[in-house]
Design a protein that fits this description.
The chain is mainly alpha-helical. The chain is built from 24 helices and no strands.
Length: about 475
């Protein structure tokens, strides 16, 4: 018997029961640690060690496991670098006045009669620009909710619209950590992933705007613009505001449309941001280097402005990259041990159509999100289902879209989620049950993706070009 055969014989047979133990054990540890307040990164590292112990129990040598973890990291290396570039770009775009200009002009569209739709649109706009739902909610969201009482609109209703809009940006912004995570975890190009999400986001947004218009149509009175003026004046006094500052955004969007690789697109965006910051805002090259690493920072004298613009930088993404690296290692161990193959092989006997496979994705992301939050819901489900999507001729952009529609959006309406509770505190000290019934988009996206996946709408084949064609239905679904 050869040495290779002896090593193979030394490994235990991967039965369905052992496969479930190997998969659910690390996840259970991850969920339990997060539930008691552990940081996601630390919980993921401990789960990784649990999986290593399982693999050693199954007879794998350290050399094999080390190689498997390295392979897992290789798969996400480029995506991790893109995340770091995004952090750098946010910082220099703040310093350049690019994002502040977008925010300044965005606040000018507030009108009394369409207040609730504006409560959706403005935070969505800001969240797309900044890549953070929390930043949008905790700044312009606070201002809008403060105005709602004077218009006869319940604060909970306005808060629901604000959170819905903010999560539009959390889902659709190329700067968002969840958008980057869903793209990288499924190995789908970032802007292909974003194009795929229009299938559920466009109808969901239209329905939201109709509902918010209907609810707020009878709002009357004049908006007390003091808070808005304080924020906009604070921005204009801190930055030179000009439409010229939007040019870096236009160029990056143009490159994205032309499908220039995200690595190059964001690199060009960073260079433009540094040039604009030097020319238009008077920041030195040395200051820009500091911003690139540590994030933009300014003391404007207006706390709301500082909270909105002081962000970004290489270091701001290190925590997310750390999570991604650990989950990449975990993915490599799942693959090497055959845990996922065994589970998916048994699962595929029951989930043997594209619609049922995607339902498996839906329910897995839903359960994990309820218990452990956004990141594990996206990353773990991606690892479990990306290969079976290939086998069933399902484009991975459908998988990444479903992960965001469920994993990202459900997190906005989980009552026991610490962030959701925090939204209520920040937006006027209201109960989560005051605003969750009006947080429409995070409710609609999971429903829409479930319907579309079963009917075949937007269910691309693996080799299909991902374009937004609203009524395109998969043949032989």
């Amino acid at each position: 018997m050869s040495e290779k055969t002896e090593k193979a014989a030394a490994k235990k047979v991967m039965t369905p029961g052992l496969a479930l133990l190997g998969f659910l054990g690390p996840i259970a540890i991850l969920v339990a640690l997060i539930a008691i307040g552990a940081d996601v990164t630390i919980a993921a590292v401990i789960s990784l060690f649990v999986m290593l112990c399982f693999c050693m129990y199954m007879g794998y040598r350290w050399e094999e496991l080390d190689s498997a973890m390295a392979d897992g990291v290789k798969q996400i290396a480029t995506a991790a670098m893109i995340m770091l570039l995004v952090g750098c770009m946010v910082a220099v775009w703040m310093a350049a006045g690019t994002i502040p200009t977008l925010l300044y002009y965005g606040m000018k569209i507030i009108t009394p009669k369409l207040f609730l739709p504006i409560c959706f649109i403005l935070p969505a706009f800001m969240a797309v620009c900044t890549g953070t739902s929390w930043g949008s909610i905790s700044t312009i969201g606070v201002v809008l909710c403060g105005m709602s009482a004077g218009l006869g609109i319940p604060v909970g209703m306005a808060a629901g619209a604000v959170i819905s809009g903010a999560f539009f940006g959390d889902k659709m912004s190329p700067l968002s950590d969840t958008t980057l995570l869903a793209s990288s975890s499924t190995e789908v190009p970032l802007f292909v992933h974003i194009r795929s999400m229009w299938y559920t986001t466009i109808p969901g947004t239209i329905i939201c705007l109709i509902l918010y218009t209907f609810l707020g149509i009878q709002a009357s009175g004049n908006i007390d613009t003091a808070a808005v003026n304080e924020l906009s004046n604070g921005i204009s006094s801190t930055f030179n505001i000009s439409l010229l500052h939007i040019i870096p955004v236009v160029i990056v969007l143009f490159l994205s449309v032309k499908q220039v690789p995200a690595f190059l697109t964001f690199g060009i965006g960073i260079v433009l941001g540094v040039i604009w910051a030097i020319i238009f805002q008077g920041h030195s090259f040395a200051e820009n280097l500091t911003y690139l690493m540590s994030g933009f920072s300014v003391e404007s004298g207006v706390p709301a402005v500082d909270a909105l613009v002081n962000r970004g930088g290489f270091s701001s993404m290190l925590s997310l990259v750390g999570i991604l690296l650990v989950l990449g290692m975990l993915s490599g161990l799942f693959t090497e041990s055959g845990v996922l193959n065994a589970i998916v092989s048994n699962l595929s006997k029951k989930l043997n159509t594209p619609g049922t496979i995607m339902f498996g994705v839906w329910i897995s992301a839903f359960i994990i999100c309820l218990i452990a939050g956004q990141y594990p819901a996206i990353a773990i489900t991606a690892v479990a289902f990306k290969d079976i999507c290939d086998d069933m001729d399902i484009n991975r952009a459908v998988l990444s879209r479903t992960l965001e529609d469920v994993g990202t959006m459900i997190a906005a309406i989980v009552p026991w989620n610490a962030w959701v509770i925090g939204y209520g505190v920040v937006l006027g000290g209201i109960s989560v049950m005051d605003f969750i019934p009006y947080t429409f988009l995070p409710m609609l996206c999971p429903i829409l993706t479930l319907i579309f996946n079963f009917t075949g709408v937007g269910m691309y084949h693996s080799n299909d070009e991902v374009k937004y064609r609203p009524f395109w239905i998969r043949k032989n679904h």
